[in-house]
Amino acid sequence: MKTSIATVSLSGDLPEKLDAIARAQFTGVEIFENDFLTFDHSPATVGRMVRDKGLTVTLFQPFRDFEGMPEPLRSRGLDRAERKFDLMQELGADLLLICSNVSPHALGGVSRAADDLRELGERAAKRGLRIGFEALAWGRFVNDHRDAWEIVRRADHPAVGLILDSFHTLARGIDVASIRSIPSDRIFLVQLADAPKLELDLLSWSRHFRNMPGQGDLPVTAFMDAIWATGYDGVVSLEIFNDQFRAGSARAVAVDGKRSLVYLADQLGQLDAADSIPPRAICRGVEFIEFALNEATIEEFRNLIGALGFHLAGRHRSKQVELWCQGDVNLVLNYEREGFAHTFYLTHGPSVCAWCLKVADADAAERRASGLLALPFRQAVGLGELEMPAVRGVGGSLVYFVDDNSGLTRWRDIDFEAANKEDHSPVQVGITNVDHLSQSMEYDEMLSWLLYYGSILDLNKTDGQDVADPGGLVRSQVIQNDERSLRIVLNGSQSRRTLSGRFLNEFLGSGTQHIALATKDIFATVAALQSRGFSPLPIPANYYDDLIARFGLDDDLIARLRQANILYDRDTTGGEYFQCYTKVFAERFFFEIVERRGYDGYGAANAPFRLASQSRLSHRPEGVA
Ligand SMILES: O=C(O)c1ccc(O)c(O)c1
Ligand SMILES: [Mg+2]
């Protein structure tokens, strides 16, 4: 697949954009005229810069308000085009995008437009150039690719072709089946963009809210399927007008763009054999969670997880690393003075530095992640110790993969020496497995991480929700598998004053903020924990009064919930959810204990109460209980 991206999609000046595009392994670049005009070098120099990066110019654009003009505007348009042809020849671009006319002077008429394009095509052909006609969704007379195609067909000139842009077609809800009958050699370029569903005029929607294929709500996959059904094997180019992206990191946005294209082609079975990747990794669950600690913080952390019923199960054979277990939950406490976890500790303080996911095939999962431009990670291991495949994830943390077939799930026995039973004898408080993991990030990063998880792993996103934090709104988005053996909640805060926002400030970046542990009997678990000195996040009495009003629970249940600081939710099918939180550890992360009774959500209705309690505690002066 020949991939390209428009310079207008990225932040920075032209050299920064080209650098980001080349690093993300695109084949080519659409040069947007404005990016060129605002750069103080000749077209020849820009052309050389593009080629030096190993890229080709796939398109020069846009050329506006050309077809269907009365004289003298028609002649002026042709003259204007000749100047652009000069520039393109110097630049080394052979295709010019003509977008449909929006001028009040435009006259309309299919034959007139076809005549104009034929004449311009004839002039382009003399110089070895081509022109592509694109219907803007808000074009005055041409705003539908079917009309643009009729005009191109009638122009009947080898240097005149059609440019299809998914946004313009899909935003107007035009049936993509109409693409299938267009001869592929008449499609000169395909531009791709997705967008969220919004009630907005077409132009504003297009100029500010486009996003990468798969990140929005438009049926871009069906669009591309129709394109490939024609036999088209030309350039697929991203043209993403998005205010957030233009304010973000050019490199990160370019990587997301390439990832979205590879994923799209993969979904439609269109990746070249040489680029093919294994299918989305099937997750069986969370194998372990690794914490970056140091000698000063580890004791306090041991106390916390000890109070939660975890016991020391093993010590690493060559490293300052402990394994604490309960049920199927494995916590790895790393307080080495070198290596990845230590570096992570130095940057972020006590924190979750890695997750290990159990998948069907660990090696395949890593190959897929690498094919989707995730950064592979390797670290020195001791003799005979396991080398686990890993890639970089949110905030520079790691995602390890293990599976049964390769023996990687034997990491406990291979890398760890079993701890003395007398050290910490296993207790049973009833925690069985990890229910879900939650990560906090900048609001602007959420689309990026959703694409990361959804393209690499067999996970699907649900509708996002806004949660009220005393410091501002937090956007919450779930991505999970059908089996529910992996559930991830992403929280994006636009305000620095929310708990998530403060986490980002204090933690110096995005990362895991909250780990939910499942029990089959939350009342028994919390009672057992209380006898071990566990002190839950206190929930105000008002919450329980409101519960009576909302759900009509009986007095006895309310009293038990209140006594144990357990939150309650019920869904429309009668499924019930019980949640109890720990206090925040080192102002960074916390645990939650949950019990599900036929309930599939995450207690969003309770989040404001939990956030208010956490906020109250974190604002309380030192020493005040
Ligand atoms: O918003 C625009 O004007 C514009 C210009 C060129 C394009 O290819 C496009 O899709 C939109
Ligand atoms: Mg376009």
UniProtKB/TrEMBL annotation:
It comes from the Bacteria. The keyword NADP does not apply. This is 3-dehydroshikimate dehydratase. Pfam families: AP_endonuc_2, Glyoxalase, Glyoxalase_5. Keywords: Isomerase, Lyase, Metal-binding. Belongs to the bacterial two-domain DSD family. Residues 433-583 form the VOC domain. The keyword Membrane does not apply. Its EC number is 4.2.1.118. HAMAP family: DSD (MF_02238). SUPFAM superfamilies: Glyoxalase/Bleomycin resistance protein/Dihydroxybiphenyl dioxygenase (SSF54593), Xylose isomerase-like (SSF51658). GO terms for molecular function: 3-dehydroshikimate dehydratase activity; isomerase activity; metal ion binding. A divalent metal cation binds at residues 134, 165, 191, 239. Its cofactor is a divalent metal cation. It catalyses: 3-dehydroshikimate = 3,4-dihydroxybenzoate + H2O. InterPro entries: DSD, Glyas_Bleomycin-R_OHBP_Dase, Glyas_Fos-R_dOase_dom, IolE/XylAMocC-like, VOC_core, Xyl_isomerase-like_sf, Xyl_isomerase-like_TIM-brl. Mg(2+) binds at residues 436, 514, 592. Pathway: Aromatic compound metabolism; 3,4-dihydroxybenzoate biosynthesis. Catalyzes the conversion of 3-dehydroshikimate to protocatechuate (3,4-dihydroxybenzoate), a common intermediate of quinate and shikimate degradation pathways. GO terms for biological process: 3,4-dihydroxybenzoate biosynthetic process.
